[in-house]
Amino acid sequence: MMLWHDVEQNTQEWNELRTGKVTASQFGCFMANAGRAFGEPAKRYALQIALEIIKGNKSEFSFTNAHMQRGHEQEPMARTLYEIERSVDVTNGGFFDLGDYGDSPDGIVGSDGVIEIKSVTAAVHFETLKRRTFDPAYKWQLIGHLDCTARDWVDFVSYCADFPEDKQLIIYRLARKDYQDEINQLRLRRKDFLNLIEDTIDVIIQ
Predict the structure, then answer these.
(1) Helices 40-55, 180-205: crossing angle, 10 deg rounding
(2) Taking Cα atoms as reference points, which of 147, 52, 13, 143 lies closest to residue 5?
(3) 5, 24, 39, 50 — which has fewest CB within 10 A?
(4) What share of residues in the chain are helix, strand, coil (percent, to 5)?
(5) Half-sphere exposure of 90 toward its Cβ, with a 13 Å CA cutoff?
(6) Domain count along the chain
Protein backbone atom coordinates (compact mmCIF):
# COMPACT_ATOMS: atom_id res chain seq x y z
CA MET A 1 0.00 0.00 0.00
CA MET A 2 1.26 3.47 -0.88
CA LEU A 3 0.93 6.41 1.53
CA TRP A 4 1.65 9.99 0.51
CA HIS A 5 3.05 12.39 3.10
CA ASP A 6 2.74 16.13 2.46
CA VAL A 7 6.18 17.08 3.79
CA GLU A 8 8.85 19.45 2.49
CA GLN A 9 12.10 17.94 1.23
CA ASN A 10 15.19 18.17 3.43
CA THR A 11 13.23 18.80 6.64
CA GLN A 12 13.62 16.70 9.78
CA GLU A 13 10.20 15.10 9.26
CA TRP A 14 11.12 14.20 5.67
CA ASN A 15 14.40 12.63 6.79
CA GLU A 16 12.63 10.64 9.49
CA LEU A 17 10.09 9.27 7.01
CA ARG A 18 12.93 8.12 4.71
CA THR A 19 15.01 6.47 7.43
CA GLY A 20 15.55 2.79 6.71
CA LYS A 21 13.88 2.98 3.30
CA VAL A 22 15.38 2.58 -0.16
CA THR A 23 14.64 5.78 -2.07
CA ALA A 24 14.27 6.45 -5.79
CA SER A 25 17.21 8.85 -5.93
CA GLN A 26 19.45 5.84 -5.20
CA PHE A 27 17.77 3.24 -7.42
CA GLY A 28 20.54 3.67 -9.98
CA CYS A 29 23.17 2.25 -7.62
CA PHE A 30 21.53 -1.18 -7.53
CA MET A 31 20.28 -1.12 -11.12
CA ALA A 32 23.90 -0.99 -12.31
CA ASN A 33 25.05 -4.39 -13.59
CA ALA A 34 21.44 -5.56 -13.67
CA GLY A 35 21.30 -9.31 -14.11
CA ARG A 36 24.66 -9.77 -12.41
CA ALA A 37 25.94 -9.60 -8.84
CA PHE A 38 25.55 -6.31 -6.99
CA GLY A 39 28.55 -4.00 -7.18
CA GLU A 40 30.26 -2.16 -4.36
CA PRO A 41 28.02 0.97 -4.54
CA ALA A 42 24.94 -1.22 -4.08
CA LYS A 43 26.56 -3.10 -1.19
CA ARG A 44 27.49 0.17 0.53
CA TYR A 45 23.95 1.45 0.11
CA ALA A 46 22.54 -1.82 1.48
CA LEU A 47 24.80 -1.40 4.52
CA GLN A 48 23.61 2.19 5.01
CA ILE A 49 19.94 1.14 4.96
CA ALA A 50 20.63 -1.89 7.17
CA LEU A 51 22.24 0.33 9.81
CA GLU A 52 19.35 2.78 9.64
CA ILE A 53 16.86 -0.05 10.19
CA ILE A 54 18.82 -1.43 13.13
CA LYS A 55 19.49 1.93 14.80
CA GLY A 56 16.27 3.70 13.87
CA ASN A 57 18.00 6.86 12.68
CA LYS A 58 19.80 8.17 9.60
CA SER A 59 23.31 6.85 9.01
CA GLU A 60 26.13 9.33 8.45
CA PHE A 61 26.64 8.32 4.83
CA SER A 62 25.11 11.37 3.17
CA PHE A 63 26.95 14.52 2.17
CA THR A 64 26.33 17.88 0.58
CA ASN A 65 28.63 19.47 -1.99
CA ALA A 66 28.61 22.78 -3.83
CA HIS A 67 26.65 21.38 -6.79
CA MET A 68 23.94 19.98 -4.51
CA GLN A 69 23.72 23.27 -2.60
CA ARG A 70 23.34 25.23 -5.85
CA GLY A 71 20.62 22.85 -6.91
CA HIS A 72 18.63 23.47 -3.74
CA GLU A 73 19.00 27.23 -4.16
CA GLN A 74 18.04 27.36 -7.85
CA GLU A 75 15.24 24.79 -7.83
CA PRO A 76 12.50 27.36 -7.02
CA MET A 77 13.44 29.41 -10.10
CA ALA A 78 13.44 26.30 -12.29
CA ARG A 79 10.04 25.32 -10.89
CA THR A 80 8.62 28.79 -11.64
CA LEU A 81 9.97 28.76 -15.20
CA TYR A 82 8.50 25.28 -15.71
CA GLU A 83 5.09 26.47 -14.48
CA ILE A 84 5.20 29.38 -16.93
CA GLU A 85 6.44 27.23 -19.81
CA ARG A 86 3.77 24.56 -19.33
CA SER A 87 0.99 26.79 -17.90
CA VAL A 88 0.56 24.53 -14.87
CA ASP A 89 0.81 24.71 -11.11
CA VAL A 90 3.40 22.51 -9.40
CA THR A 91 2.55 21.38 -5.87
CA ASN A 92 4.72 19.82 -3.18
CA GLY A 93 6.15 16.43 -4.11
CA GLY A 94 6.11 15.16 -0.55
CA PHE A 95 7.09 11.56 0.11
CA PHE A 96 5.47 8.50 -1.45
CA ASP A 97 5.88 5.77 1.17
CA LEU A 98 5.68 2.16 0.01
CA GLY A 99 6.99 0.47 3.12
CA ASP A 100 10.52 -0.75 2.41
CA TYR A 101 11.07 1.94 -0.21
CA GLY A 102 9.77 5.34 -1.27
CA ASP A 103 10.10 8.39 -3.47
CA SER A 104 10.27 12.17 -3.26
CA PRO A 105 9.64 13.81 -6.64
CA ASP A 106 10.41 17.53 -6.84
CA GLY A 107 6.79 18.34 -7.54
CA ILE A 108 3.35 17.04 -8.46
CA VAL A 109 1.55 18.29 -11.57
CA GLY A 110 -2.20 17.81 -11.69
CA SER A 111 -3.52 14.30 -11.14
CA ASP A 112 -1.21 12.42 -13.48
CA GLY A 113 2.31 13.89 -13.49
CA VAL A 114 5.43 14.62 -11.44
CA ILE A 115 8.65 16.52 -12.14
CA GLU A 116 12.32 15.99 -11.39
CA ILE A 117 14.41 19.17 -11.49
CA LYS A 118 18.18 19.14 -11.98
CA SER A 119 20.00 22.46 -11.63
CA VAL A 120 23.22 21.69 -13.47
CA THR A 121 26.48 23.15 -14.73
CA ALA A 122 26.69 24.64 -18.22
CA ALA A 123 28.63 21.64 -19.51
CA VAL A 124 26.03 19.13 -18.28
CA HIS A 125 23.16 21.27 -19.60
CA PHE A 126 24.87 21.53 -22.98
CA GLU A 127 25.17 17.75 -23.23
CA THR A 128 21.46 17.39 -22.47
CA LEU A 129 20.68 20.02 -25.10
CA LYS A 130 22.66 18.04 -27.69
CA ARG A 131 21.24 14.71 -26.56
CA ARG A 132 17.62 15.85 -26.96
CA THR A 133 16.52 13.51 -24.22
CA PHE A 134 16.91 13.10 -20.45
CA ASP A 135 20.29 12.69 -18.78
CA PRO A 136 20.88 8.91 -18.57
CA ALA A 137 22.56 9.38 -15.18
CA TYR A 138 19.05 9.82 -13.77
CA LYS A 139 17.28 7.09 -15.72
CA TRP A 140 16.41 4.88 -12.78
CA GLN A 141 15.38 7.74 -10.55
CA LEU A 142 12.93 8.80 -13.28
CA ILE A 143 11.69 5.23 -13.77
CA GLY A 144 11.38 5.08 -9.99
CA HIS A 145 9.12 8.13 -10.03
CA LEU A 146 6.81 6.40 -12.50
CA ASP A 147 6.78 3.22 -10.43
CA CYS A 148 6.47 4.64 -6.93
CA THR A 149 3.99 7.45 -7.63
CA ALA A 150 1.83 5.42 -10.07
CA ARG A 151 1.59 8.60 -12.15
CA ASP A 152 1.26 8.58 -15.95
CA TRP A 153 4.35 10.68 -16.67
CA VAL A 154 7.41 12.38 -15.25
CA ASP A 155 9.02 15.49 -16.71
CA PHE A 156 12.81 15.64 -16.49
CA VAL A 157 13.75 19.31 -16.10
CA SER A 158 17.33 20.50 -16.66
CA TYR A 159 18.01 24.10 -15.60
CA CYS A 160 21.08 26.29 -16.09
CA ALA A 161 21.00 30.04 -15.47
CA ASP A 162 24.22 30.51 -17.50
CA PHE A 163 22.38 29.85 -20.77
CA PRO A 164 20.34 32.37 -22.80
CA GLU A 165 16.84 32.81 -21.38
CA ASP A 166 15.15 30.66 -24.02
CA LYS A 167 17.60 27.80 -23.41
CA GLN A 168 17.82 27.82 -19.61
CA LEU A 169 15.13 25.17 -19.27
CA ILE A 170 15.06 21.80 -21.03
CA ILE A 171 12.03 19.56 -20.47
CA TYR A 172 11.77 15.93 -21.52
CA ARG A 173 8.72 13.81 -20.67
CA LEU A 174 8.81 10.08 -19.94
CA ALA A 175 5.38 8.47 -20.32
CA ARG A 176 4.59 5.45 -18.16
CA LYS A 177 3.18 3.53 -21.13
CA ASP A 178 6.58 3.69 -22.87
CA TYR A 179 8.63 2.39 -19.93
CA GLN A 180 6.68 -0.60 -18.61
CA ASP A 181 9.54 -3.00 -19.35
CA GLU A 182 11.97 -0.83 -17.38
CA ILE A 183 9.48 -0.56 -14.50
CA ASN A 184 9.26 -4.35 -14.38
CA GLN A 185 13.07 -4.62 -14.43
CA LEU A 186 13.27 -2.17 -11.56
CA ARG A 187 10.73 -4.07 -9.49
CA LEU A 188 12.57 -7.37 -9.87
CA ARG A 189 16.00 -5.94 -9.11
CA ARG A 190 14.66 -3.93 -6.16
CA LYS A 191 13.20 -7.09 -4.64
CA ASP A 192 16.65 -8.70 -4.82
CA PHE A 193 18.22 -5.58 -3.31
CA LEU A 194 15.79 -5.62 -0.40
CA ASN A 195 16.85 -9.23 0.20
CA LEU A 196 20.48 -8.06 0.23
CA ILE A 197 19.58 -5.56 2.95
CA GLU A 198 17.99 -8.33 5.01
CA ASP A 199 21.11 -10.49 4.59
CA THR A 200 23.26 -7.54 5.66
CA ILE A 201 21.14 -7.04 8.78
CA ASP A 202 21.50 -10.74 9.63
CA VAL A 203 25.29 -10.51 9.47
CA ILE A 204 25.34 -7.44 11.75
CA ILE A 205 22.97 -8.70 14.46
CA GLN A 206 23.90 -12.35 14.65
Answers:
(1) 60
(2) 13
(3) 39
(4) 50, 20, 30
(5) 24
(6) 1
Strand order in the sheet with 101-103: 3-5, 95-97, 101-103, 22-23
Q: Please, which pLDDT band fits residue 5 given cuts at 50, 70 and 90?
A: very high
Q: Is the pLDDT of residue 68 over 60?
A: no
Q: Which residues of 161-192 are buried (b: 16+ CB within 10 A; e: fewer)?
A: eebeeeebbbebebebeebeebeebbeebbee
**Treating both helix axes as pointing N-terminal to C-terminal, what angle do 139-149 and 180-205 enclose, rounded to 10 degrees?**
90
Domain range for residue 38? 3-205
22, 197 contact by CB (below 8 A): yes
By C-alpha distance, which of 9, 205, 203 is closest to 105? 9
CA angle 42, 47, 53 (to 5 degrees): 125
Helix (H, G, I), strand (E, B) or coil at 157: strand
Looking up residue 168, the CATH number of its domain turns out to be 3.90.320.10
Residue 50: partners with Cβ closer than 8 Å, 6 or more residues away: 197, 200, 201, 204
Pairing of strands 107-109, 90-91: antiparallel
Q: How far is CA 74 from CA 31, 91, 125, 135, in A?
A: 29, 17, 14, 18
Q: What is the mean pLDDT of the chain?
A: 93
Tell me, what's the pLDDT at 63?
53
Give the global pTM: 0.93
